[in-house]
Write a structure and sequence with these properties.
This protein has helices spanning about 55-60, 85-105, 115-130, 150, 160-170, 175-180, 190, 215-225, 260-275, 285-295; strands at about 5-15, 20-25, 35-40, 65-70, 105-115, 135-140, 200-205, 230-235. It is of the alpha/beta class and about 300 residues long.
C-alpha cells in the first residue's frame, strides 16, 4: 500500500471575486507521471463540498492517482451559477496543466468522477469542451442528470426542477430550449464531430432513486451507445440517492461501505483501462484509425 500526501485548500482559481479551492491526494513517491482524477461533489448545485470525497480521494491516491477534489461556485436564489460552475471545472483543468511539470502529472490522462450535480458537471464539461493542452479520457457519473427538460416534465421530480431553475437562473416554463441546451444529452453529436474527442463513460445509479429519475442514466446510456461512444453501466437495485460519498447526516458513503465495496473496484478497473492505459500523446482513437488507413 502506498503512503499518500494530502494537501488541503489549495487555490486553483477565482470566481466572482473569491478564490476556489481543492484538496489534493497523491502518492508520496512514483516512478512515472501520474494520471489525474478530478472529483466533483453533488449537492443540487447549491450545497456540498470537496470534503465529501475524503474516502474516495485517499483510496484513489493509494491506488496510484493524483486526485483533485474541487469546490466550485454554488447557486442561490439570487445568483445562478450556470455556466460559471462549468468554468470552475475548466479552471481546475488549467491548474493541472500549469502544475503538471513540477508535480509530475500527465495532463493527457485525466479522469473525472462526479455524483448527482457533480455528475452533470463532469459530463457536460467533457462533451462541450475541446481542449488541446489536456485530455479527458474517462468520466464516472453517479446518479447524474443528463436531460434537464425530461426531468422537469416529471411531476414526481418537482424538487429537481426547482434546483435546475435556480442553477440556470430562469424558470423552466417558457425556457425549454435553454434547458435543452444546458443538457449533456444535447451535446453528444457535437462532441463526436470533434476528431479529438475520445472520452469513455461509466454510468452508475440506484434503481430506487427518489430524487433523480433512474431513467436519466438509462436513456443517456442508450444515446451514448447509439453515438458509438464507449460506455458501461452499473445499476444498484436496492439503493437510491446519497450513498456514493460522505455526508454529515447520512451513514456510510466511504469506499468501505456498501455498495461502494462493489462499485469502487469496478471504477478502478474502468479507470485503469480508460485512463492509465490510454493512448500516449494527444491522439484520439479516431485519429489513430485515420493514421492507420493512411499508413496502408
Amino acid at each position: 500500500m502506498r503512503n499518500i500526501t494530502i494537501e488541503k485548500n489549495i487555490v486553483y482559481g477565482e470566481a466572482v471575486g473569491e478564490y476556489v479551492t481543492a484538496d489534493l491526494y497523491y502518492p508520496q513517491s512514483h516512478d512515472r507521471e501520474l494520471p489525474v482524477v478530478v472529483l466533483i461533489h453533488g449537492g443540487a448545485f447549491q450545497s456540498g463540498s470537496k470534503e465529501m470525497y475524503r474516502s474516495v480521494g485517499s483510496k484513489l491516491a493509494t491506488d496510484g492517482y493524483f486526485v483533485m477534489a474541487i469546490n466550485y461556485r454554488l447557486s442561490t436564489p439570487a445568483s445562478a451559477t450556470y455556466p460559471g460552475a462549468l468554468e470552475d471545472v475548466g479552471q481546475a483543468m488549467n491548474w493541472i496543466v500549469l502544475h503538471a511539470n513540477e508535480r509530475g502529472l500527465d495532463p493527457l490522462r485525466i479522469g473525472i468522477i462526479g455524483d448527482s450535480a457533480g455528475a452533470y458537471l463532469a459530463t457536460m464539461f467533457s462533451l462541450t469542451r475541446q481542449p488541446f493542452s489536456y485530455r479527458i479520457c474517462a468520466v464516472v457519473a453517479v446518479y447524474g442528470i443528463f436531460d434537464l427538460s425530461a426531468e422537469c416534465r416529471e411531476e414526481k421530480y418537482a424538487t429537481t426542477t426547482n434546483m435546475f431553475e435556480q442553477f440556470l437562473g430562469i424558470p423552466y416554463e417558457g425556457n425549454v430550449e435553454a434547458f435543452d441546451k444546458a443538457s449533456p444529452i444535447s451535446h453528444v453529436e457535437e462532441a463526436i464531430a470533434n476528431p479529438i474527442f475520445d472520452t469513455d463513460y461509466y454510468l452508475i445509479w440506484g434503481k430506487t432513486d427518489p430524487i433523480i429519475n433512474p431513467n436519466q442514466s438509462i436513456v443517456f446510456y442508450e444515446h451514448l451507445k447509439k453515438a458509438k461512444i464507449q460506455v458501461i453501466t452499473s445499476e444498484i437495485p436496492d439503493k437510491g440517492h446519497l450513498w456514493f460519498n460522505e455526508l454529515p447526516t447520512v451513514e456510510g458513503g466511504t469506499v468501505d461501505d456498501y455498495p461502494n465495496t462493489i462499485i469502487y473496484p469496478k471504477i478502478l478497473c474502468f479507470l485503469e483501462g480508460s485512463v492509465w492505459n490510454s493512448l500516449d500523446g494527444n491522439f484520439s482513437r479516431k485519429q489513430i484509425a485515420v493514421l492507420d488507413r493512411l499508413k496502408d
